[in-house]
Design brief:
Strand order of the largest sheet: 5-4-1-6-10-7-11
Helix content: 25-40%
Strand content: 15-25%
Order of helices and strands: EEEHEHEHEHEHEEEHHHEH
CATH superfamily: Spore Coat Polysaccharide Biosynthesis Protein SpsA, Chain A
CATH topology: Spore Coat Polysaccharide Biosynthesis Protein SpsA, Chain A
Number of domains: 1
Distance between the termini: 37 Å
Oligomer: single chain
Length: 246
């Protein structure tokens, strides 16, 4: 089973333009992420998929593998699918470009889903983390997920799901972390399917997989990633890096 990592890397970012090329301990954020993926030894190959000449050249200059997107895409799955069509792979892991301190334990758990699925019934695996803070639960920027007893995703929503009608019942809420592991064919099928109605409504790409009948296995983690969405996040990442490098 050949397992590769694809790191989608858009240069533009609404809240923090050019964040992937910001300096993080002497190297751009995207290079830190790329090297972390390589050093994890979880993957047979690691690729950056980008719309930016600057990012492309940054990776190529260190002997890395970079692919230029041919089109503009709104979601990572489409960007990765276009790039992976002609690449030999069974499982494709989507590593977030703005999370340079990758969570190797959680990624290993995602890979294990497919190693323990000889019948190839699972199309995707993804991560969820329990949230307990009322503001986090009600925040539409946090995508919530509910699963069945086998941890297969039932639905994703920006709304509060499940609705806690009976206050005598203990309800747990989970946030979806946008880290995916795909069978290559699931990605290709996604790419060749137009945006679906519920996906368009919620603006959640995972829903398109569900609307075309793909099974998504959710894996619980308690690790909150050190993501870089704002200049303040970058400062936190610099402190985090210094803590572990010195």
């Amino acid at each position: 089973m050949k397992i590769i990592a694809m790191i989608p890397a858009r240069y533009s970012a609404t809240r923090f333009p050019g964040k992937l090329m910001k300096d993080l301990g002497g190297k751009p954020v995207i290079l830190r992420t790329y090297e972390a993926a390589l050093n994890s030894n979880l993957f047979d190959d690691v690729y950056i998929v980008t719309d930016s000449d600057i990012i492309f050249k940054t990776i190529e200059n260190v002997g890395g593998k970079a692919i230029m997107s041919k089109k503009e895409y709104e979601c990572g799955s489409d960007r990765i699918a276009e790039a992976v069509v002609d690449i030999d792979a069974d499982i494709v892991i989507n590593v977030q470009g703005d999370e340079p301190f990758i969570d190797e334990v959680s990624l290993s758990k995602l890979i294990d889903v497919f190693k323990k699925d000889p019948e190839k019934e699972i199309d995707l695996a993804s991560l969820k983390v329990q949230i307990t803070n009322k503001e986090d639960i009600e925040n539409p920027n946090n995508v919530k997920v509910i699963t069945d007893i086998n941890n297969l995703a039932i639905y994703f929503s920006r709304s509060v799901i499940p609705f806690h009608r009976d206050q005598n019942i203990d309800v747990k809420y989970y946030k979806h972390k946008g880290v995916y592991a795909f069978r290559k064919q699931a990605l290709i099928d996604f790419y060749h399917t137009p945006i679906t109605p519920l996906e368009a409504s919620e603006k959640i790409e995972a829903i398109r997989y569900q609307e075309i009948g793909k099974k998504i296995k959710m894996v619980e983690t308690d690790v909150e990633a050190v993501g870089i969405d704002t200049p303040e996040d970058l400062e936190k990442a610099i402190k985090y890096l210094n803590k572990y490098e010195f």
